[in-house]
Amino acid sequence: MKKIVLLVALLVATSAFAQYDKQNEIRLNAFSILAARNLDISYERLLNEESAVGASFAFDLTGGDKFNLFGINQSYAITPYYRYYFPLEVSNGLFLEAFLSANGGKNKIKYDDGDSELIDIWEEGEEIDGEDFEQYRAFEYSDFAFGIGGGYKYASAGGFVAELYAGAGRNLSGDLRTPVVLPRLGLSFGFRF
Description:
The chain is about 15% helix and about 55% strand. The chain is of the alpha+beta class. It is elongated and about 60 Å long.
């Protein structure tokens, strides 16, 4: 009986050590490709069993002519983050994250009569195909955001990783041309090595 308990304990310890030995991850955000037509690739480095740092790099695949559900066409986003895991196993389970994002692209803005804040910049806007030029215009922007998010990650002992996350950031410039809220959504798949 002692031998069986010792053998099981040894196998569990070896499995946990082997999973923690893999401290790097590469993931591709499938949701971003399908919903926003952005290529979003992430790299993450595990610091210990409960925390990690990483960065996501997102680039537009449409050539700048399609707007997402939020009225944004994001040309690029470089998003470093820190994650704290509530682990079931090593960096596997629920997590919270804080992120920064350097982002830019085009923002679709609707003009309402009497919106005096937009009068000064309205003539700078570009026409959007299929939209009423008097009511909707696109404005190029570059900004810097700070935000928070959370999600769930599954990592198999073989190295397969899947995660679902959501968060939101706030662009900090205060410029009317930029979107105020920066969504961060994903369903990512990758591997840990």
